[in-house]
Design goal:
transmembrane helix, alpha+beta, membrane, 17 strands, 13 helices
Length: 474
């Protein structure tokens, strides 16, 4: 009964409203002034203030959204620092678009509500909810009512107004600082040219008395010694342009050892004279007084350089395992893959190809330019010969000599190889063994690592194409 009374009151209100007067009254009024119904509708639709405001707000919002889009496109991939105005500008544009769009939809919603009031009847409670739109609670009440499908456009429009609040949340996130896409550029990086006289770059100099050979300068000798002793590769600092990070590859000619295993049966051992080889490849002297666990020798002759290393895995209370390698000097092509990030470098050198043996680099007239401390400018081949021989002689002097064990835990270290990372000795447990799984592989890598150390300590440069990491971009 109460619902019927409320509905009757609502109908009376609508009938008394001048907006909803009868069609005949409206028609008679328009006829008095000579205005047709169709022209009146057209004028009220096109020229009324609500219609102009709705379309005007939409146009202004679309214009600002377009400006915002072009701003984002302009700032894309541009280097920025801590410039907060860019983020604030994006926030301002998004809030303007959201406000104007929401205002346009709100005005449209009001017109739509009045149109539905003209066509349908509503209760007082429903009217209260309709005129409370686009607030969230009335929208939910109308959406959950039984007459949802009768006013579905109104509920949809109210929900759209609420959805526009997401514009000011999502749009600013379109402008974010992040890591820039890397770019390719030419940079100057350290390298080494063994085809140039090493005296020009200071890492080697002619040695008396004949001045036909070069020797490593003291400062570079310390660098090479550190490289030989360390398990960590000694490289160089980030070149200019790599402050944020870069990747590049360099190739260069360099010396390297090519090694082959020596059969244990061809290693001479005094402790077993009857089974000792007639022409041994290596020698390990063993008798009742001492046991030689390492012996390194080298051969410098007219047609090459060889290094011979023999050793045995020695355990005081166990069986010994004898091994040996024969290494020859070659000219190789070496490639180093270099990566820097935050001034921390990772250098991975490896041998690309073995080219010609060292003996092919020996010039026919190598001794004709000797005889004084001021050696005339060397040729390309002579520079390779002098550089490789100086570096190889430095290494051979560190590998030569013997290491022996005597009774009562006494060791005789007659070789600098004990200071390298090739072998490890434990005086307490009385053990001697290679540090790695393969001495052959370790020796082949030694000159590769020494060359990288020379590059880091030298001052020769070259230009390469590198992938450069940039600062943060928008």
């Amino acid at each position: 009964m109460a619902d019927q009374v409320e509905e009757q009151q609502m109908v009376e209100i609508l009938l008394l409203s001048p907006r909803y007067s009868t069609a005949s009254d409206n028609l008679s009024t328009r006829s008095k002034f000579g205005i047709t119904q169709s022209s009146m509708v057209a004028q009220s639709t096109l020229l009324s203030s609500p219609s102009l405001m709705i379309f005007g707000l939409i146009l202004v919002a679309a214009f600002i959204a377009g400006v915002h889009h072009f701003l984002l496109a302009f700032l894309h991939e541009r280097i920025v620092q801590d410039q907060f105005w860019m983020k604030n500008t994006s926030n301002t544009f998004s809030i303007l678009v959201q406000t104007l769009s929401a205002a346009s939809v709100s005005a449209s919603l009001m017109q739509l509500i009045w149109w539905f009031l003209h066509c349908r009847s509503f209760t007082i409670t429903q009217l209260n909810n309709l005129f409370s739109l686009p607030n969230s609670f009335p929208t939910v009440c109308l959406a959950s009512s039984k007459m949802l499908w009768k006013i579905f456009p109104i509920v949809t429009m109210a929900a759209l107004v609420q959805a526009y609040t997401l514009v000011s949340i999502l749009a600013p996130n379109m402008l974010e600082g992040g890591t820039a896409s890397p770019k390719m550029d030419n940079i100057t990086v350290p390298t080494i040219f063994f085809g140039r006289d090493p005296q020009e770059h200071g890492w080697a100099f002619p040695a008396p008395p004949t001045y036909c050979n070069y020797q490593i300068a003291t400062g570079f000798s310390r660098v090479l010694g550190s490289s030989l002793q360390s398990d960590i590769l000694i490289g160089w600092s980030a070149p200019m342009g790599c402050e944020n990070g870069c990747n590049y590859t360099i190739e260069y000619g360099a010396p390297a050892l090519l090694c082959s295993d020596i059969n244990a049966a061809s290693i001479f051992d005094y402790a077993n004279d009857t089974g000792s080889p007639f022409s041994p490849s290596a020698v390990l002297l063993n008798n009742s007084d001492f046991t030689t666990v390492y012996n390194g020798t080298y051969e410098f002759y007219n047609d090459g350089i060889n290094v011979i290393v023999a050793w045995q895995r020695y355990y005081l209370n166990g069986d010994s395992i004898v091994g040996g390698v024969l290494c020859s000097l070659f000219n190789i092509t070496q490639r180093s893959t270099v990566s820097f990030f935050n001034n921390t470098g990772v250098i991975v050198p490896r041998i690309i190809s073995y080219n010609e043996p060292y003996k092919a680099l020996i010039p026919q007239n190598v001794s004709s330019d000797c005889g004084g401390p001021h050696v005339p400018k060397t040729s390309f081949t002579q520079s390779y010969y002098l550089s490789y021989s100086a570096l190889m002689e430095w290494l051979a002097l560190r590998l030569r000599g013997t290491i022996s064990y005597r009774s009562a835990q006494q060791w005789d270290f007659m070789s600098s190889v004990i200071d390298s990372s090739l072998f490890v000795v434990n005086e307490t447990a009385v053990t001697f063994s290679p540090r790695g799984a393969s001495v052959k592989t370790a020796l082949e890598q030694v000159l590769v690592n020494l060359t990288v150390a020379l590059i880091g300590a030298g001052r020769e440069m070259t230009t390469v194409n590198a992938t450069i990491m940039l600062n943060q971009l928008v």
